[in-house]
Design goal:
The protein is mainly α and 100 residues long. It has three helices and no strands. The chain has a domain of 48 residues.
Length: 100
């Protein structure tokens, strides 16, 4: 009988020292909320990224056009240079606008 009391005492001590189950449930709920928030944030970032891709493509294209014109300026005649400079500046401005 003394042994049974000891086991009952151990069981009581185990129940007293163990963390409450309600705290674990709250902790899991918090983790689920954090996961949902992280997933939502990630989805928004992907959506924003997809919206920005055409702007970056247009900006890159304008930069490539401006660089090609810069090369043409080096080999072009003096008559062509003002028109090429105007086009190059316009391409750079387009790139700036698209990247903003």
């Amino acid at each position: 009988m003394g042994r049974l009391r000891l086991r009952a005492g151990e069981l009581a001590l185990l129940v007293i020292l163990s963390p409450p189950f309600s705290g674990q449930v709250l902790e899991l709920t918090g983790q689920e909320t954090d996961t949902k928030t992280a997933k939502k944030t990630q989805e928004e970032a992907i959506k924003d990224s997809n919206l920005m891709k055409p702007h970056f493509a247009n900006g890159n294209r304008a930069m490539q056009d401006a660089q090609a014109i810069r090369q043409q300026l080096q080999s072009g005649t003096n008559d062509q240079k003002p028109a090429l400079l105007t086009k190059m500046k316009a391409d750079y401005q387009t790139a700036i606008t698209e990247y903003e």
